[in-house]
Amino acid sequence: MLINRKHFSLIDSTNTWAKQNAHLLPKDVITLVTADEQTAGRGRFKRHWVSPPKQNIYASFCFFLKMGRPDIGNIPQVLALSTVTVLRKWGFSAFLKWPNDVLISKKKVAGILAETTTVDDQLCMVLGIGLNVNMPLELLEGIDRPATSLSFEGKRHFDIEEVLQVLQKQFVADLSLFLDQGFSHFLETYRRYHGEYGITPIRFHDNQKIWEGLFHAINDDGSLVLQLSDGTLKTFIAGEILF
Ligand code: BTN
Predict the structure, then answer these.
(1) How far is the CA of 23 from the centre of ligand 1 (A)?
(2) Strands 202-205 and 122-131, how do they pair?
(3) Ligand 1 pocket test: which of 6, 42, 44, 47 has the largest number of ligand atoms within 8 Å of its C-beta?
(4) For the segment 134-160, what is each residue's pLDDT rounded down to a tens digit?
């Protein structure tokens, strides 16, 4: 698949720009919107995404899908998996935190914000990823939840454009496999990249309340199953595991 690149040195948010300009984007290629710096970077749950200049990847993959595909909710999970694949190839001990956070040393190194908009009768997916590449400890410590960067973990500087190129290549290949074969192709790897939760209870926020339970399984559709303290199994399709 071809990539149409749109780069900004400064922008409010690559996701916001992509959603606002979706009607101008070519429909037959992936557009990759990137920025050196974001003034209003957005995370999940209306959080702010810390986006200082020339330190990290701020990128939105934008592409058009036919309406009615039931599994588009798995696409952000595929991007998270592509990210872990790339980081592991570089020797990082990277893991997934359901549904699509990427962790190293139990701290978040990348997050994904998936949004959609409609143009004509096609669905435009805007898949934003923030990957902390060269963010120094002083700035990581200013983030209100455990965060890390490749340079902090790897004790060396990374070329941001090179990291982006490798990630882009991996994701474009994985997306094409997903569109052909569905999420089942990735399930085994997606489950394995979560690592072991063991017998430590998980706290989980489903956008309404906080649940506590043991990690039980990831269903074939990518949803999460927890075993609650009374033994019942509860399935979640959205939310986040709390640190
Ligand atoms: C999360 O909360 O984990 C998701 C973070 C997503 C951040 C990226 S940075 C590029 C793109 N533009 C944004 O405003 N957000 C996403």
Answers:
(1) 21
(2) unpaired
(3) 42
(4) 999 999 999 999 999 999 999 999 999
